[in-house]
Write a structure and sequence with these properties.
The chain is of the alpha/beta class. It is 22% helix and 28% strand. The protein contains three helices and 20 strands. It has a seven-stranded mixed β-sheet with strand order 3-6-9-14-17-19-20. Strands 2-5-8-13-16 form a five-stranded parallel β-sheet, covered by helices on one side. The protein is globular and about 45 Å long.
C-alpha cells in the first residue's frame, strides 16, 4: 500500500506541474505612469486605514484603478498590489496583512479563498538567458475555497485548484490538485483533504 501511495504521489506531482512558458513583458509608458499614481494613492489613502474598518474604501480605491473585486471581499491595508488592474477577486475572499501581489500579470482569486499574512504571489521573473535579464511573466490562478497559509511563495504560472491548501512557509512551483494539501519547499502533496 505504501508503494502504491508513493507512485500515486509521484504521478500526481508530474501531472500537476505547470506546462506554461513565461512570456516577455513589454513596458508601456502609460502603465508606468498609472503604477506611479497608484503608488502614491496606496501610500496616502490606502495603507493607513484601520484594518477592521474602511474595507469599503479600500475596495473602492482598487476598483477605481481597474481591479475586478467583489464588495464582500476583505483586503487588509498593508496588502501590496503592484498593478490593481491585473487583480480579480471573487465573493467573500480575504487577503491578509502584508500579502504581496506582485502582479505584472493577472492574479485571479476565486470565491471564499483565504490568503494569509506575508504570502508572496509572484507573477514575474527574470530571463537568465537574456543579456539584460528581461522580465518574463505568467498569471496566477487561485480557485474557489483555497487557503494559502502564512509566509508562502507562489511562483508565476501556478494554478491552485478548488479546495487545495498550501501549508505555512511552503514554496509552490507547480499546479495543485483539487482538495489536496501541499507542504514544503518545493511544495509537494501531504495528503488529501477530508471535508466535513
Amino acid at each position: 500500500l505504501t508503494l502504491i501511495f508513493y507512485i500515486f504521489i509521484v504521478l500526481s506531482n508530474k501531472e500537476s506541474q505547470s506546462n506554461k512558458k513565461l512570456k516577455p513583458y513589454k513596458q508601456k509608458l502609460s502603465v508606468k505612469f498609472l503604477r506611479i499614481t497608484w503608488f502614491f494613492v496606496w501610500c496616502l489613502l490606502f495603507r493607513f486605514t484601520p484594518p477592521p474598518f474602511f474595507n469599503f474604501w479600500r475596495v473602492f480605491l482598487l476598483k477605481l484603478f481597474g481591479a475586478n473585486i467583489q464588495w464582500s471581499s476583505k483586503i487588509y491595508p498593508s496588502v501590496k498590489i503592484f498593478e490593481p488592474w491585473n487583480l480579480k477577486i471573487g465573493k467573500n475572499s480575504l487577503i491578509g496583512s502584508n500579502v504581496d501581489c506582485y502582479n505584472y500579470d493577472k492574479i485571479v482569486i476565486g470565491e471564499n479563498a483565504t490568503i494569509s499574512q506575508n504570502v508572496f504571489l509572484c507573477t514575474a521573473s527574470r530571463n537568465y538567458k537574456s543579456k539584460n535579464f528581461n522580465i518574463i511573466t505568467e498569471s496566477i490562478s487561485i480557485e474557489n475555497k483555497v487557503w494559502i497559509a502564512a509566509n508562502c511563495f507562489v511562483a508565476p504560472g501556478v494554478i491552485l485548484k478548488k479546495g487545495s491548501v498550501l501549508l505555512a512557509g511552503s514554496n509552490l512551483y507547480q499546479n495543485t490538485r483539487e482538495n489536496f494539501i501541499y507542504m514544503g519547499s518545493p511544495a509537494k502533496i501531504k495528503k488529501k483533504r477530508k471535508n466535513k
